[in-house]
Write a structure and sequence with these properties.
Elements lengths: L12 E9 L3 H12 L4 E4 L14 E3 H6 L13 E5 L7 E4 L5 E3 L2 H15 L2 E3 L3 E6 L2 E6 L2 E12 L6 H5 L8 E10 L8 E5 L10 E5 L3 E8 L8 H11 L13 E8 L8 E2 L2 E3 L15 H21 L10 H5 L3 H11 L4 H11 L2 H12 L11
Helix pairs in contact: 1-3, 1-6
The protein binds flavin-adenine dinucleotide.
C-alpha cells in the first residue's frame, strides 16, 4: 500500500485514541507501533510531502542497523573509515574499524517507506496539516480544508526541537541547541573507501564539527555549531567550508545541490517528557546524543518506549504516563556525554582546537575517539539496553 493522505477527510471535528504531531522518524515510528497494537492513531504533519525539507544527514550507526529493520535498498554502502582533521586540515588522524560502522540513509525513500508502513498499520495520516494549539481538552489543527478540532486520549509531541506540543503540555523544552546545515549531491562513484571526514575547527563549526561524508554514491558537506558563534553566519561558514572541504579531491560541486538544515538539541534528554495528557518523542524530548548530535538512533528507541507506555495506559485506563516515561531517569545515563559536550563547547578558537587535537594523536586520545565513534553504546530503550 502507499501512503494515503487523509487530510481532506478530517472534517470540523474528529476523535482518536492518540494524536501524533510530526511525521519525522520519531512520529512515524511511534504512530506505526501504536496502530499495530490496535489503537486509533491520527498522525499530522505541516509538510505536504514527507520526502521534502529533510533535516538530517541520515547517518545510521551500527547499533541502529543491527536492531531496526531499515530497508537495505535505501541505505548507502557501509562506512568503516573516519578521518579527523585539526584546523588547517594538515596531518589528520585516520581511524578504521574492523566492522561496518555507519550507513547513510537515502532519506526521501526511507521516509516514504516509513509512511507506507504507518498506513499499512492503519494510521490515519494528514499532511499539510498544522497543529496550532490546545484549548482545554481539544487540540486544534489547520489543514488544507480548514480547521479541525481533535479530541484525543493522548497527544504525542513528535514535532521536533522547538516543540509546540511540549509548550502546550507544560513539559520541558529544549534550550541548548546547535544549528546545522549541509549540501548533498550525487557522486559518480569513487575508488576511495567510503569515509566520514570530520573537521574540528571552530571557525567553521563553533562547538561542534564540520563534515564531509563521501560513501561513493553521495557527498554530504556540512557544518554545525552554536548559532551565535559563527564568525560570519551559518550559511557563509558552509560556503567557506565547501570551498576547502576534504575528501572530495577531483569532485566538482554541481550547480544544483540539495540543501538541508535545522536545529539540533544537545542539552540531553529533557527531564519532564510525559504527563497525563501525553508525551514527547525524538528531538522534542531532547533525545539526541549531546556529544555526537546523533538523533536517529535515540528517536527510534524512545519511540518504542513511548508506544509501550501509551499502549499500557490505553489498555489499563491508567492515565499518568509520567512515572513509566521519566526523562530524568534516562538523562542520568548521559552524564559522561553531557560533560564532554560542555568540554567541546569551551573550544572557542582554532588555536584551542589545535591544542585539543594533539590529544587525539596520543594512544589514549585515539582509543577515546574510537570508543565514541565505533562504540557499542546507544540510547537506552526497551529491550535494547
Ligand atoms: C543538519 C543535521 C544533520 C543531522 N544528521 C544526523 C545524522 O547524520 N545522524 C543522526 O543520528 N542524527 C542526525 N541529526 C539529528 C536527527 O536528524 C534528528 O535527531 C532526528 O531526525 C529527529 O527526528 P524527529 O522525528 O524527532 O524530528 P523531525 O525529523 O524534525 O520531525 C519533526 C516533524 O514535525 C513537523 N512539525 C513541526 N511542528 C509542527 C506542527 N506545529 N504541526 C505539524 N507538524 C509539525 C515537522 O514538519 C517535521 O516533519 C541531524 C540533524 C541536523 C539538523
Amino acid at each position: 500500500m502507499t501512503t494515503t493522505d487523509t487530510s481532506r477527510h478530517l472534517g470540523a471535528t474528529t476523535r482518536t485514541d492518540v494524536l501524533v504531531v510530526g511525521a519525522g522518524l520519531a512520529g512515524l515510528h511511534t504512530a506505526t507501533l501504536l496502530a499495530r497494537q490496535g489503537h486509533d492513531v491520527l498522525l499530522v504533519d505541516r509538510r505536504t510531502d514527507l520526502t521534502g525539507a529533510i533535516r538530517t544527514t541520515g547517518i545510521f550507526v551500527r547499533k541502529t542497523l543491527d536492531d531496526f529493520p531499515l530497508p537495505s535498498e535505501h541505505l548507502g554502502p557501509p562506512i568503516r573509515r573516519v578521518v579527523l582533521y585539526p584546523p588547517g586540515m594538515r596531518h589528520p588522524v585516520s581511524l578504521t574499524s574492523g566492522r561496518d560502522e555507519y550507513r547513510v540513509g537515502d532519506m526521501a525513500p526511507l521516509y516514504a517507506a516509513a509512511a507506507d508502513a504507518a498506513t499499512d498499520a492503519g494510521v490515519r495520516t494528514a499532511l499539510g496539516t498544522r497543529y496550532v494549539g490546545r484549548r482545554g481538552d481539544a487540540f486544534h489543527l489547520v489543514g488544507r480544508c480548514g480547521p479541525t478540532v481533535v479530541r484525543a486520549r493522548f497527544v504525542v509531541g513528535a514535532d521536533g526541537a522547538r516543540s509546540t506540543v511540549a509548550r502546550d503540555l507544560a513539559l520541558d523544552r529544549n534550550h541548548h541547541l546547535l544549528v546545522g546545515a549541509e549540501e548533498v549531491f550525487e557522486l559518480p562513484g569513487s575508488d576511495e573507501p567510503p569515509t566520514f571526514h570530520c573537521v574540528l575547527d571552530p571557525s567553521f563549526a563553533p562547538g561542534y564539527l564540520a563534515w564531509v561524508v563521501n560513501d561513493g554514491r553521495h557527498a554530504h558537506v556540512g557544518v554545525a555549531g552554536y548559532a551565535d558563534r559563527f564568525p560570519d553566519g551559518l550559511r557563509r561558514a558552509l560556503e567557506r567550508f565547501g570551498a576547502s572541504a576534504p575528501g572530495l579531491t577531483g569532485v566538482a560541486r554541481p550547480e544544483v545541490v540539495e540543501r538541508r538544515g535545522g536545529p539540533i538539541p544537545v542539552g540531553g534528554v529533557l527531564r519532564r517528557i510525559g504527563c497525563p495528557d501525553g508525551l514527547l518523542v525524538g528531538d522534542a524530548a531532547g533525545a539526541v546524543s549531546p556529544l555526537t548530535a546523533g538523533g536517529l538512533d535515540p528517536c527510534l528507541r524512545l519511540s518504542e518506549l513511548a508506544a509501550a507506555v501509551l499502549d499500557d495506559a490505553l489498555r489499563t485506563g491508567r492515565p499518568d504516563v509520567s512515572a513509566a516515561y521519566d526523562g530524568a531517569a534516562l538523562r542520568a545515563r548521559f552524564r559522561g556525554r553531557l560533560m564532554l559536550r560542555r568540554g567541546l563547547a569551551q573550544v572557542r578558537t582554532p588555536t584551542m582546537a589545535a591544542v585539543a587535537f594533539r590529544l587525539l594523536r596520543t594512544p589514549f586520545g585515539r582509543a577515546a575517539a574510537e570508543r565514541v565513534l565505533f562504540g557499542d553504546r546507544s540510547f537506552p530503550g526497551p529491550g535494547h539496553g
